[in-house]
Amino acid sequence: MRVLLTGAAGFIGAAVRSELAERGHEVVALDAWIPQAHGDAAPNNASTDGIEHLDVTDADALAPLLAGVDVVCHQAAMVGAGVTPADMPLYARHNDLGTAVLLAAMAEAGRTRLVFASSMVVYGDGRYVCAEHGDQPAPARSLQALKDGNFDVVCTTCGQPMGWALVDENARLQPRSSYAASKLAQEHYALAWSRQLPGAAIGLRYHNVYGPQMPADTPYSGVGAMFRSAIERGTPPRVFEDGQQMRDFVHVTDVARANALALERVVDLPADTYEAFNVCSGRPVSILDVADLIVAGLRADGLAPQVTGEFRTGDVRHIVASPHRAKDQLGFTADVDPAAGLREFARAPLRTR
């Protein structure tokens, strides 16, 4: 297949590009080299390592690259939870507008197949079960409760802390941050596009992606990179809340393979089809466990994680994915167990921007 890949110079995009090339696909690669992802490393020339320097909001520049393309793999985005509300225009521009312009350009060029990067953040808080009242919707945690150190999500009926359960793709979508709002907007645009064109689109809801060439310590980095950077500075990793937040960490090579499988699926889907899949390891870990694994990988026994009780209002308590739909329909199962992968990640090369 001939694949147009946006965000090809990024952490995930570069891994997807390598995976597609290994499978024999022809890749037309582009990236905007936005500072939040690449720092001051943006190229001055028109292309670098075969990657066109192009912003997906530039419809005129996109048009010739779409010629002869069988499918588009859209990875370009501004990532992270949103450091401050001042980031909202950047998310709206790169994620919302960028996706809308790309979809319009695809329609103009007659390109009807799309795979794109969504995120677990579209779920907001995950799935919770009360021991007495069963499955319950997750109310947003109050600021006062967080200040008081009460981090659990509580049942609205009895007020008792609830346990987490796996979230499947049919769960309610309820973004809690500006980044999450932008990723949900991307899904809505892709769904509308698939019906109006009509076309076929697959959204891949990545969970916590990590691996070699992850950006080093920036406000937009993943928590694993932040923990590692702290240790390398000789300071203990700081773990927010009580460290018992549950997440799913999935290796970037597994994410790349999930994209390849989705691309091979989407070309055979009928028009007017929209599908979403969790991309996860299926092996939940706590944030404190993540810090401990990275400490162990660096053999930094004297820098035990510090559980600080700090919090961010846009964070959710638990979000743990069900891997079953991706296994059943994409044939995707993650190869890398976080228990081993996070130890290896502790010594993997990172991007220093």
Describe, in short, the structure shown.
By secondary structure, the chain is α/β, with parallel strands linked by helices. The protein has 11 helices and 17 strands.
What topology does this entry show?
Layout: E1 2-6, H1 11-22, E2 26-31, H2 35-38, E3 47-48, E4 51-53, H3 59-65, E5 71-74, H4 88-109, E6 113-119, E7 127-130, E8 134-136, H5 143-147, E9 163-165, H6 178-196, E10 200-206, E11 208-210, H7 223-232, E12 238-239, E13 246-247, E14 249-251, H8 252-266, E15 273-279, E16 285-286, H9 287-297, E17 306-307, H10 324-330, H11 338-345
Parallel strand pairs: 1-2, 1-5, 2-4, 5-6, 6-10, 10-15, 11-14, 12-17
Antiparallel strand pairs: 3-4, 7-8, 7-9, 13-16
Structure in words:
By secondary structure, this protein is of the alpha/beta class. The protein has helices spanning 11-22, 35-38, 59-65, 88-109, 143-147, 178-196, 223-232, 252-266, 287-297, 324-330, 338-345, and strands spanning 2-6, 26-31, 47-48, 51-53, 71-74, 113-119, 127-130, 134-136, 163-165, 200-206, 208-210, 238-239, 246-247, 249-251, 273-279, 285-286, 306-307. It is built from 11 helices and 17 strands. The chain is globular, with a radius of gyration of 20 Å. Strands 3-4-2-1-5-6-10-15 form an 8-stranded mixed β-sheet, with helices on both faces. The protein has a 3-stranded antiparallel β-sheet with strand order 8-7-9, with no helix packed on it. A two-stranded parallel sheet has the order 11-14. The two termini are 32 Å apart. Helix 3 crosses helix 4 (88-109), helix 7 (223-232) packs across helix 9 and helix 9 packs across helix 11 (338-345). A hairpin with a 2-residue loop joins strand 3 and strand 4 (51-53).
